[in-house]
Design goal:
This protein has one helix and nine strands; from the N terminus they run H-E-E-E-E-E-E-E-E-E. It is mainly beta and about 170 residues long. Strand 6 and strand 7 form a beta hairpin.
């Protein structure tokens, strides 16, 4: 058996998804800091990380391609202090979340030791196009420009309709 996830010939162009899943499975996760992922609505998510002891200057959030990366780096302020027991260490962390295409960062805030990050998932547009079929056989050379027309989608009554975007000039 191959290590490929999308082995069916019906899945075309999903190589990038396999690479994302492989990268996500290889990332080390020690469970620190603990976090929640909450669905706020059909189009909104919130990631909440417990970052007690961190101040805003200790935290950094970046979006690197399709990854949301959260880093925390505390400074060791134990100089001149004598601990009889030290159970709270100045610790660093690095958390990465793989984002689906189209996910946008809505904002982030720190409140009572919790770092909240809102993610927005816009509703996808239904794209339907009719591909013209030509008579005869193509011979070598580069692909031809295909003439097509946008066909209005069939909307079922149980689903909400979504806007259709024309793809003629793309």
């Amino acid at each position: 058996m191959s290590g490929r996830l999308f082995t069916s010939p019906m899945f075309l162009g999903f190589d990038h998804l396999e690479q994302m899943l492989e990268r996500a499975s290889k990332s080390t996760s020690d469970g620190y800091p603990p976090y929640n992922i909450e669905q706020l609505s059909q189009t909104a998510l919130r990631i909440t990380l417990a970052v007690a002891g961190f101040v805003m200057d200790d935290l950094q959030i970046t979006q690197e391609d399709n990854q949301l990366v959260i880093r925390g780096r505390q400074t060791d302020d134990s100089q001149g202090r004598i601990f009889l027991h030290r159970g709270i260490a100045a610790r660093q962390f690095h958390k990465a979340f793989v984002l689906a295409e189209g996910i946008e960062i809505g904002g982030a805030w720190l409140d009572n030791g919790l770092l909240h990050i809102d993610l927005l998932r816009p509703e996808p547009e239904v794209r339907v196009k009719r591909i013209a079929i030509t008579q005869g056989r193509r011979t070598g050379g580069s692909p031809q420009t295909v003439q097509h027309e946008v066909v209005p989608p069939v909307v079922k009554t149980a689903r909400r309709s979504r806007p259709v975007r024309e793809l003629d000039d793309e």
